[in-house]
Design a protein that fits this description.
By secondary structure, this protein is mainly alpha-helical. The protein contains 19 helices and no strands. The site of 4-fluoro-L-phenylalanine has 16 residues, from helix 1, helix 2, helix 5, helix 10 and helix 15.
Length: 444
């Protein structure tokens, strides 16, 4: 099986696929509401620091495990530490991917619904956006049909394979996404009154700092970079031997942060420019979640000229971003079943699709179940996974493997200080930081 294992074809394809996984609903829906909650610019500064000090090192750690083992998330630990219990870290990751798919797919369905509402013009005629969203939530059949559509759409790309499906789609979709975002940013920042939104986003106000801002920013960084569940590990198992792991991690993180910032530059200026009551802007944004994307945003668009086009572009963009993330999540689970249970990729995919459809259907009809999956994965499973991945590479994995992966067997020169610093982060800094997020999740 491993002799015929796929790899990505080009460097651009690798970056696009990994960035496609990272860029998703987390950037466009979660980031703006977390930023509003965290007091604007100050949150962003801490967020970027978290990406630099913990996010990038952990992504490189996942890359090291993935490429050195060339196996699925669970098989990787099995190969690198045979006979130990580390394989449970990989299994937990696969389970986390499955759980995330179970609720993420429902949100993807809502995104498609709003895209349809935009292009058919019905969103344009809505007067009560809150009622409009609640109507969708109450319509189980519609939610399930759209969720099924998105699951099958994702499965189509997995079915097509690593190069033809994942890589090719990401290479097309990521630039499209960027282009759409730029167009939206230009529109939003040229609205009358947009400056107040940009000020909130980029001018730190120390009075607004909350005690939990550091941990919130770190949680957002991990979710957004797709870390802690073996997703980047699985993609790295398709990387080529001459791929510069650190470079790719930096590029993906920069792209991911740029998309988050650009999304903020769409949402904050339009919120400040178009809101009827400026006093409630921040609290509306903080509410975030479904409210922000499916109530506040369409309402804002309705105040713009050409609202049909703007909301259609926005929800198309959201669907595209979400699709490249669901592809990565589904690939993690599919390749695990394919390799560990010796099933063909097709059979494995069929099994995953059935499982996700069941989970998705239950979370579409039950909001408490939806919230349970969301909370269990983000607050508990991802931090535990991230903690053990960094401990694995920091303490357990042979230093020779780490160095060989970082330097591509000595072909890339890397200073001793860099290697020592990296080891320090993985051994101490990252585990302690992640443990804090986890404890915060328990208390908060
Ligand atoms: N990073 C994705 C987002 O920001 O929407 C979500 C995600 C994808 C999380 C893949 C975890 C993962 F493995």
């Amino acid at each position: 099986m491993s002799e015929t294992r796929s790899t990505f074809g080009s460097k651009l394809g690798m970056v696009a696929a990994a960035a496609g996984s990272a860029v998703g609903l987390g950037n466009i829906w979660r980031f703006p509401s977390e930023t509003a909650d965290g007091g604007g610019a100050i949150f962003i500064i801490i967020y970027i620091a978290c990406i630099l000090f913990f996010g990038i090192p952990l992504m490189v750690a996942e890359f090291i495990v993935g490429r050195s083992s060339r196996a699925n998330a669970a098989g990787a630990f099995h190969k690198l530490s045979p006979g130990t219990q580390w394989k449970w870290v990989g299994r937990l990751g696969v389970l986390t991917g499955f759980v995330i798919l179970g609720f993420y797919m429902v949100v993807c369905g809502w995104t498609v619904d709003y895209f349809i509402q935009s292009i058919t013009g019905t969103l344009h005629t809505v007067s009560d956006f809150s009622a409009n969203f609640n109507q969708l939530l109450a319509n189980n059949t519609r939610q399930i049909v759209l969720m099924v559509f998105f699951v099958l759409l994702t499965a189509f790309f997995i079915f097509a394979g690593v190069q033809k499906g994942i890589e090719r789609s990401a290479k097309i979709m990521m630039p499209v996404l960027f282009l759409l975002l730029i167009v939206m940013v230009i529109r939003a920042t040229t609205l009358d009154g947009a400056a107040a939104g940009l000020n909130f986003l980029f001018k730190p106000d120390l009075q607004e700092v909350k005690s939990t801002v550091f941990l919130d920013a770190m949680g957002q960084a991990f979710f957004s970079l797709s870390l802690g569940m073996g997703c980047m590990m699985t993609y790295a198992s398709y990387f080529r031997d001459d791929t510069h792991l650190t470079k790719i991690a930096v590029q993906v993180s920069v792209l991911d942060s740029m998309v988050a910032l650009l999304a903020g530059m769409v949402i904050f200026p339009s919120a400040f420019a178009l809101a009827a009551n400026p006093d409630t802007i921040v609290s509306n944004l903080v509410e975030g979640g479904p409210g922000l994307l499916f109530i506040t945003i369409p309402e804002l668009f309705n105040h713009m000229q050409g609202s049909i086009i703007w909301s259609a572009i926005f929800f198309l963009l959201l669907s595209v971003a979400a699709l490249t993330s669901t592809i990565s999540l589904m690939e993690v689970v599919t390749v695990y079943i394919h390799e560990e249970y010796r099933m063909s990729r097709r059979e494995a995919l069929l099994l995953v699709v059935i499982g996700v459809l069941v989970l998705g259907t239950v979370s579409a009809v039950s909001l408490p179940f939806f919230n349970l999956l969301d909370m269990a994965s983000a607050k508990f499973m991802l931090p535990i996974g991230g903690l053990f991945i960094s401990l694995f590479v920091g303490w357990y994995l042979d230093k020779k493997i780490t160095q060989a992966q970082l330097t591509n067997n000595g072909k890339i020169s890397m200073g001793v200080t860099f290697l020592k610093g990296y080891s320090f982060i993985l051994k101490f800094l990252a585990p302690i930081a992640i443990l804090l997020i986890f404890l915060y999740g328990l208390i908060g």
